[in-house]
Amino acid sequence: MTAAETKNPSIALVGTPNVGKTVVFNKLTGLHQKVANWPGTTVSVKQGTVRFNGKQYSLVDLPGTHALSDSSADQIVTRDFLLAANPVLVINVIDAAHIEQNLYLTTLLMEMGLNAVIALNMQDLAKSSGIQVDAAALQRKLGIPVIETVAPKGKGIAELKAAIEDALTTEIKTCCPEFPSIQETAKKVAAILSFAHTTVTDWHVHEAIQDAKYPFDLMEPWDREKARERIRELVQTELGDDSVMQVITARYEFVEQIVAEAVETSEALPRTADLLDCALTHRRLGIPVFLAFMWLTFDFTFEVSTPLVIIVEMFFEWVAVLFDGIDNEILHSLLVDGIRAGIGFPMVFLPQIAFMFLALGVLEDTGYIARAVFVMDRWMRMVGLTGKSLAPMLIGFGCNVPGIMATRSIEDENDRILTILVNPFITCGARLPVYVLIVAAFFPDYEAEMLTLMYALSIFFAAMMALVLRKVFFGGSSGYLLLELPLMLPPTLRGPAMLSYRRSKSFVKTMATWIALGSIMIWALSVFGSSGFLGAEALEDPELLEKAFISDLGHFFAPLFSPMNWDWRAVVALIFGFVAKEIVVAIMGVLYAGGSELSVSAIAGNLATVGGFTPLSAFSFMVFVLLYAPCLGTIIVTKREAGTKWMLVSITITTATAWIVAALICLIGGIWW
Amino acid sequence: MVVNQFKIWQISTVVACVAYAIGCVLSILNTFGIPDDIGFALDNGVAPSAVMCLIAILFAMGLRELHLRQRKDMERFVGFTLTGVVLAAAVSAVGILKLLAGLLSKYALDSEDFEDWNAVDEFTPAIWLVIFALIAFHPLRNRAKVEQALKYGEAEP
Asked: Per-residue DSSP letters for A558-617?
């Protein structure tokens, strides 16, 4: 995003990962952007509108970052915005409990000479950890207004707004911190840069000392090479080989001085909630505890949502009765068998999607997900992934599209591409309805266990594929995980509810667009044949349906799946599932309802009687849906993030793996069952 | 004072650990259809048995740390025991919610799928064993006592 893209003057929200920037953003804008208690939630720039002093501003929530170098996409995005978009104010959100790590970024902002306000967040948690930050002393030392906030509770937000209004009126630029150890060299470097640079800040100078590329980018090519060479020679003469370390050390010395005067640390006992870490991140018990929480999540999803599922089923039965008065047979069939069955049947699974994300939201809110990342890191590295890959993969459980976008926080390009390629193996929420339907039909006594198995298989195949891809395409080994564990907090009601609402809304939106169109198309292909309109009975009479266009389509593709021996109706559902995974269950709703009531149990029954599915073939179908080509949205975002070559690799490996594994399940399983 | 506190923790955690271990064993046996009728409903399936086993192990790990009585070990005792309590409470809460969902489906919505459903069959140890976990949690509720024990744990003979 550039300044030209924002109509209003912009205010940037900056901070290290997981300091509560997005909470502050939501409090200031009144928006409901996704918030999570683990690092890397904000991977792209988010924008909202705010009014201060009667004037409108664009508030921009930038990705969390510890530095502003070229080492990862999130750092580049933040740095480029701060330098190119020329924000009128920067709100630097600081975690009071980890102030030393956070003030390094503040130092960089000061070097850039930006107009800033500091929101000293999480003061309550800092105090409970024995850390007393004197906001007034901090303000005095930094020369920047410091406002104490506890953003989730809304504390200090009014004061922060007042400070922002003051800062916008006075526009006091921050003064650059002094680094005595490199001061003389910095002056000379600044003089060289000034020849060809219109705006040279101390940050440009210090980056140039470190031989970073950015300070030279705005120069003419000839000036660039000449200036860079002169600075290299100067730095080599005056600071020697370790100029990078000298700049970083100078910055940390400055931070240490501030901390020494503004922060008091007493030897406090650990917070009771933090004591849970010894079990949650335990070498041997960590994974069983993780699996137990996952099983509980699915048990809750499946069983507790039942009354709502029944209500949705009853609603769509009532809708069918509503249409009984329509005399026109084609219109009646379109409304009842096409739109109602196509949209209504997947909607039956809406409560389960809402409940699953509610439960996952609770785990997220408490900070447990970051512990899961930590526990899994050892295993992730064994298969060639980095622990940093787990955050995108966990997001992928909701939807693969933001999951792939979240890989922007991975510095190493090979690790990033690898994580993009394995992300489609992570089962997204859209595939959940297919599992629920099959499990209800063929494994009714082991619903939560089967769902846990599907999610475990998803992780297993992602891991195996990472292992293979690492060896085939990338080589080398994955990087190490540097993860700052967020504090364990009691879950709020708002966080999980918002996550659940957002995913449910996305599901309903897909239903109302893609799935509605797809259902109408499938209905038309099912009631029309070469002889014209076959009548609504075609959907109830398998022999009549054989004369419909849909049957030709199904029989055309069915040989591709002959080792699995799936019904041609299921094959049609899979083919259309390339567009969106939600459509698989929508088509099954249209083709397997067969005039019976629109309930999971009724359609599940038809899968066995009409579709000829056995528990084995049904299981292989579930595994195929889990593994095969990602939806159109995921394919597009893969192309955008990794390029055409890796997009084609992604489609090929997912579909080939799905076919081979499903065929093996049927062939090997068929020996025993 | 501190010694008494240790004893209380020890006994309450032992009780919780044994209760969940018995619950786990009964659940495993029930999965294989061994006890015919023992007067109350039992959990069925590998997953509930495994989770109860895990809770018992967490309490046992806590006890082991308590036995060592070093300050760091005291923190680990609280950590393991609290994790066991949190997991037990989560299992019980989900069980109660399932029970309520069943009641709603059967009596309010009159669902055919719930014709043979019986609330008593759903009231399994996974729900009521939480009482023992809460007994283990009760002494830990007093933050001051925990802090006192953590502070002086090292000095304790």
From this structure: GGGGTTTT--HHHHHHHHHTTT-THHHHHHHHHHHHTTS-SSHHHHHHHHHHTT---HHH
> Residue A641 above 80 pLDDT?
yes
CB contact under 8 A, B105 and A272: no
Chain A: residue whose CA lies nearest to B61: A279
Return the pLDDT at A620: 95
> In the predicted model, what is the mean pLDDT of residues B72-80?
81
Q: How far apart are CA A486 and CA A124, in angstroms?
A: 14
Note whether B11 contacts A: Cβ–Cβ < 8 A. no
Is residue A359 a contact partner of residue A491, using CB atoms and an 8 Å limit?
no
Judge contact between B122 and B98, C-beta under 8 A: yes
- Cα–Cα distance for residue pair B56/B103, rounded to 1 Å: 30
Mutation site, B30, B71, B113, interface A, largest A CB count within 10 A: B113
CA proximity to A293, closest of B123, B54, B102: B54
Contacts of A122 (CB under 8 A, 6+ apart): A19, A20, A95, A96, A97, A150, A487
State both tokens at A33. Answer: 């952007």
CB contact under 8 A, B105 and A307: yes
Give CA–CA dist A41/B26, Å, rounded. 43
Residues in chain B with CB shorter than 8 Å from the CB of A314 are 109
- pLDDT of A29 over the 70 cut: yes
- DSSP-derived pairing of the beta strands A263-265 and A131-133: antiparallel
- pLDDT band at residue A4 under the 50/70/90 scheme: very low
ipTM of the complex: 0.91
**Which secondary structure element, helix H or strand E, spans residue A263, and what is its range?**
strand A263-265
How many contacts does A have with B, using Cβ atoms within 8 A? 90
Asked if B51 is an interface residue toward chain A (Cβ–Cβ < 8 A), one would say yes
How many angstroms separate the first and last alpha carbons of chain A?
58
Q: What is the torsion angle, in degrees rounded to the nearest 10, for the CA atoms of residue B64, residue B65, residue B68 and residue B74?
A: -150
Task: Give chain A positions within 8 Å (CB) of B30.
Answer: none
The 10 Å CB-count burial string (b at 16+, else e) for A201-234 is bbbbbbbbbeebebbbeebeeebbeebbeebeeb
Angstrom distances, CA of residue A404 to CA of A5, A111, A428:
25, 33, 12
What gap in Å lies between CA A522 and CA B121, rounded to an integer? 43
Average pLDDT, chain A: 84
Contact list, B151 vs chain A (CB under 8 Å):
269
Length of chain B counted residue by residue:
157
Which residue in A277, A300, A449 is closest to B94 by CB distance?
A300
pLDDT beyond 80 at B6: no
Closest to A20 in 3D by CA, of A162, A121, A89 = A121
Tens digits of residue pLDDT in A648-668: 999 999 999 999 999 999 999
- The SS3 assignment for A434 reads helix
d(CA A362, CA A34): 14
Which residues are CB-neighbours of A180 under 8 A, at least 6 positions away?
A250
H-assigned helices in A383-489: 390-396, 400-405, 413-422, 432-442, 447-469
Contact A276 B45 (CB under 8 A): no
pTM over 0.90: no
Q: What angle do CA A407, A413, A417 make, to 5 degrees?
A: 55
